[in-house]
From TrEMBL:
Keywords: Glycogen biosynthesis, Glycosyltransferase, Transferase. ADP-alpha-D-glucose binds at K15. This is Glycogen synthase. The keyword Oxidoreductase does not apply.
Length: 487
């Protein structure tokens, strides 16, 4: 079965968040399910620089205002289609914004072009690869389903995955006339959304199936509290909506072979202490392996809930615990945590920015990893923490609720706990979870069992890949003869 994945980012070529990890990991994971996936991505400068050998598949004389090319390429095990459209993608900055942090003003057309080409491939543009299903990711690929729907050519099945409903791709009504869609598409049954054009809304409305990245998040986004204006549509399409947990690459995240840390395993945890000492030294903390060391690897944003931590930092002193942070984002929060690290040197350490090696060391050396998110579609950090024996302390939301077994009284007695959950998402509840974690840490036999349980949890892509393959089989047309549409 052939599947076309349409995504705006793809690890290891271009990444701003978990979308890239998922889009990069799925093709390999699906091979065991008899699924051949090729990925269509934009030809950003870093992507083009990473391509060693390419083959031109199609030339577009005019793709929303300028010529473009569709290239075929391979990077490692990834089979790619790359949309080489320099007028849209050959720019400084990131995938969505310039170096000044401001969104590109033509993002609507940049990602309409990606979706348009994805739909054309889905309808037979490349005879050598005719997909049974087109799988679009997030708002940037949301119009793919619209271009498929408003076209008379035979079409494949369509799936859209919501990685974060907070990002919806909403644009003014003036954009519609530039998209090349028929007039009837601008309706509540099509791409119209509160008087404008909604890219994600279009995908949710017109795709055969909708998935999101955890079962709990799939339920949450059907409520006004978490639906962000789309809950009514999602409730109406509840029969087409599934929550499938993400996985992680267990070859990259493997404490037994990770070259960035001192290696250890669930059976031989002793060497893990070397990572804790290295982490304490890196952040200038008191080097004492008896202190409860909490780690954070996160963006600083309202979603991630780290502002709540400022209200309960006294808990670390009360519990004689330590905190290390690898964070970046909101400038006011950065300044606040920088000041706390200065005034509480030896107890709190903070690094602003991102370092892959340091992220691995925090997972390998911290006793617990903290994720106090107000909402979290899935989360990958807690999956890495389970793998590395750092007990996750998480808010009871979304994928965090689905992946962590709380160390409550019964779970501890049953020996099945893997971390701690707290609710509601407040400073008071967070403080209580930190105190509970510090107390359990002192009970070495219980804590070791929590660590061991986490490290034995299957956080790979094996089960998620089976779920995706089943959905593809459900929506793929039994037989299709695809005529090649005009480019």
């Amino acid at each position: 079965m052939n599947i076309l994945s349409v995504a705006s980012e793809l690890f290891p070529l271009i990444k701003t968040g978990g979308l890239a990890d998922v889009a990069g990991a799925l093709p390999g994971a699906l091979q065991a399910e008899g699924v051949a996936m090729r990925s269509l991505i934009p030809g950003y400068r870093p992507v083009m620089a990473a391509l060693k050998k390419t083959e031109q598949v199609v030339a577009f004389d005019d793709l929303f205002g300028a010529p473009a090319k569709l290239l075929a390429a391979k990077v490692g095990a990834l089979n790619l289609f790359v949309l080489d459209a320099p007028h849209f993608y050959a720019r400084d900055g990131g995938p969505y914004a310039g170096a000044d942090g401001q969104d590109f003003t033509d993002n609507a057309l940049r990602f309409a072009a990606l979706a348009k080409v994805g739909a054309l491939i889905g309808q037979g543009l490349v005879p050598a690869f005719v997909p049974h299903v087109v799988h679009a990711h997030d708002w940037q690929a949301g119009l793919t389903a619209a271009y498929l729907h408003y076209n008379d050519a035979p079409r494949p099945g369509s799936v859209i995955t919501v990685h974060n409903l907070a990002f919806q791709g909403q644009f003014g009504a003036d954009v519609f006339g530039q998209l090349g869609l028929p007039p009837q598409a601008f309706s509540i049954e099509g791409v119209e959304y509160y008087g404008g054009v909604g890219f994600l809304k279009a995908g949710l409305q017109l795709s055969d199936r909708i998935t999101t990245v955890s079962p709990t998040y799939a339920q949450e986004i059907q409520t006004p509290h978490a639906g962000m204006g789309l809950d009514g549509l999602l409730r109406a399409r509840a029969g087409a909506l599934s929550g499938i947990l993400n996985g992680i690459d267990c070859d990259i995240w493997n404490p037994q072979t990770d070259k960035m840390i001192a290696n250890y395993s669930a059976k031989i945890l002793g060497p893990r202490l070397a990572n804790k000492k290295a982490l304490q030294e890196r952040f200038g903390l008191d080097r004492d392996d008896k202190k409860f060391l909490v780690g954070i690897v996160s963006r600083l944003s309202w979603q991630k809930g780290l502002d709540l931590l400022l209200g309960c930092l006294a808990t670390f002193e009360a519990c004689d615990a330590q905190l290390v942070m690898l964070v970046s984002g909101d400038s006011a929060l950065e300044a606040a945590f920088q000041e706390e690290a200065r005034t509480q040197a030896g107890r709190i350490g903070a690094h602003f920015g991102y370092e892959e090696k340091l992220a691995h060391l925090i997972q390998a050396g911290a006793d617990a990893i903290l994720l106090p998110s107000r909402f979290e579609p899935c989360g990958l950090t807690q999956l890495c923490a389970l793998r590395y024996g750092a007990a996750p302390i998480v808010a009871r939301v979304g994928g965090l609720a689905d992946t962590i077994v709380d160390a409550n009284e019964m779970a501890v007695q049953a020996g099945c706990a893997t971390g701690l959950q707290f609710a509601p998402v407040t400073s008071e509840a967070l403080s209580g979870a930190l105190r509970r974690g510090a107390n359990l840490f002192q009970q070495k036999k219980i804590w070791k069992k929590i660590q061991s349980n986490g490290m034995k949890t299957d956080v790979s892509w094996t089960h998620p890949a089976k779920h995706y393959a089943e959905i593809y089989r459900q929506v793929a047309p039994p037989q299709r003869e695809v005529a090649r549409p005009a480019a």
